[in-house]
Design brief:
The structure is a single chain. 33% of the residues lie in helices and 20% in strands. The protein contains 9 helices and 19 strands. Helix 3 (86-96) runs parallel beside helix 4 (111-120) and helix 8 runs antiparallel to helix 9 (274-287). The two termini are 44 Å apart.
C-alpha cells in the first residue's frame, strides 16, 4: 500500500503546485487516512516543500501493522503528553522548510485554529485547498472496493443471522445493539453508522433512532446497518413483515419501493448524470402519488466515510465514473402506519463488465418473519 499512498500524495501535490502552493496541510481525518494510511487520532499530514510528515500529538508505538500509517512517511511526534495542536506545529514545520504558501482545508478548520496557523508562521500565506482530497477519493481502486465488499459481506451475515432469531416482543434498541455486536463478531472494525431498527409506525422513517417500542405481529420492520472494514464503510437496508402474511397495503407499498430502487440501480452506468439516477427512482414514487415526504436524495457515495460524494439528488451536479461505490436507498414512510426502505451498496461498472456490482446481497423479497 505504500506505493498507493505515495501516488495519492503525488496527485495532491500536483494539484497544489498548479494552484501556486508548494505545501499543503491535510487535517480532516478521513483525508489523512486516505493519503497516509491509519493514523493516530488528531494526526495531520504535511505535504511539505522538501519532505512529507505525519505530525502526531503522541507516539504510535503499540499499534498493529494494519493500524499503522504508511511506513514511507516520517512521523513527527510532538513533545510531552499534551504536545499541542499538530496542525499548528505542522504550519511551523512548513515555514521551516522554506514554504511561502500553505494550502489548508478551510472547510475543516475552525476559525480559531486557522488563526493559530497564521500566528505561528506569520510569513506563510494560507491558501484554500478546497475539497481536492474528497474529489480524489470519489473513484476507488480495487483494494478499496475489496474492503467495501468484505464489509458488505459482514453486514449481510449479521442481518441474516438476526432474521433467523425470534423477533416478536424484542425492542428496537435491543435488536440494534445485537446487530452491532454481530458486526464486530464477524470481523468488522465496528458499525459504519448508528444502526437503525424501526418497527410498526416507525418503519421506513429515514434516520430513525431505535426506541423501546417492541416488535408486534403484523409490523413492518425496517433495518438499516453498515459495517466498517479497514476504515471503509458500506450500507444495507431491508424491510420485512413480522409474523403473519403481509397485508395488501404492505405488499403494494413494498412493490412500489422495490420498483423505485430497481430503477435507480439500473441507472448506475458510467457517464450517467447523478440527478438522472435520482430522477429514475423518484419518478416511480412520484407517479404513485408519494411526492410529499420523500427523502432529499436517493443515494450517496460511500468509502472512508458513510456519506461521501457523489450525491444522488435532484440538484446534484456531475456524472458518475466507473469504480464509484454508491448507495441506492429510496423509501416511503406513511405517518402512523409505517413504511418501506430498501438500501443497497453498489459499485458503478460499465456494461462490458456486467453493469453495476451489487455488494449487499441479502434478499429483497418481502419476507414474513
Amino acid at each position: 500500500m505504500s506505493e498507493v499512498y505515495a501516488a495519492r500524495r503525488t496527485r495532491l501535490k500536483e494539484y497544489c503546485n498548479a494552484g501556486g502552493s508548494a505545501a499543503a496541510l491535510v487535517t480532516r481525518p478521513a483525508n489523512v487516512r486516505y493519503l497516509a494510511g491509519p493514523a493516530p487520532r488528531g494526526a495531520v499530514l504535511l505535504l511539505g516543500k522538501t519532505e512529507d510528515l505525519l505530525v502526531c500529538a503522541g507516539p504510535i508505538e503499540g499499534r498493529s501493522a494494519q493500524e499503522r500509517p504508511d511506513e514511507a512517511l516520517r512521523v513527527q511526534n510532538l513533545p510531552g503528553t499534551g504536545g499541542g495542536d499538530p496542525a499548528v506545529a505542522a504550519a511551523g514545520l512548513a515555514a521551516g522548510q522554506g514554504a511561502e504558501s500553505l494550502a489548508v482545508e478551510e472547510h475543516h478548520l475552525t476559525v480559531a485554529r486557522h488563526r493559530a496557523l497564521g500566528s505561528v508562521a506569520p510569513r506563510l500565506r494560507l491558501a484554500g485547498l478546497g475539497c481536492a482530497v474528497e474529489q480524489l477519493r470519489v473513484v476507488k481502486d480495487e483494494e478499496e472496493i475489496s474492503c467495501l465488499r468484505i464489509g458488505a459481506e459482514i453486514a449481510d451475515q449479521a442481518l441474516g443471522e438476526l432474521l433467523e432469531s425470534i423477533l416478536v416482543g424484542r425492542t428496537e434498541r435491543h435488536l440494534a445493539l445485537e446487530l452491532e455486536r454481530r458486526l464486530v463478531d464477524h470481523g468488522a472494525d465496528g458499525p459504519a453508522f448508528p444502526t437503525s431498527v424501526a418497527t410498526g409506525p416507525n418503519a421506513g422513517r429515514p434516520g430513525h433512532r431505535p426506541t423501546d417500542r417492541r416488535v408486534e405481529e403484523g409490523d413492518f420492520l425496517s433495518v438499516c446497518l453498515g459495517a466498517t472494514y479497514r476504515g471503509y464503510r458500506c450500507e444495507i437496508g431491508r424491510t420485512f413483515v413480522i409474523g403473519t402474511a403481509p397485508a395488501d397495503w404492505q405488499i403494494e407499498l413494498y412493490d412500489l419501493v422495490f420498483a423505485a430502487q430497481r430503477a435507480g440501480r439500473e441507472s448506475l452506468v458510467p457517464g450517467a448524470a447523478c440527478r438522472d439516477v435520482d430522477r429514475a427512482a423518484r419518478q416511480v414514487l412520484d407517479s404513485a402519488g408519494y411526492t410529499e415526504g420523500l427523502t432529499a436524495l436517493t443515494g450517496h457515495g460511500v468509502g472512508l466515510e458513510i456519506d461521501e460524494d457523489p450525491q444522488l439528488s435532484p440538484a446534484a451536479m456531475g456524472k458518475l465514473d466507473a469504480c464509484v461505490p454508491v448507495t441506492v436507498e429510496p423509501g416511503v414512510h406513511l405517518p402512523g402506519r409505517g413504511g418501506v426502505r430498501i438500501d443497497d451498496t453498489l459499485v458503478v461498472r460499465p456494461e462490458a463488465d456486467g453493469g453495476p456490482e451489487l455488494l449487499t446481497i441479502t434478499t429483497k423479497e418481502l419476507l414474513a418473519l
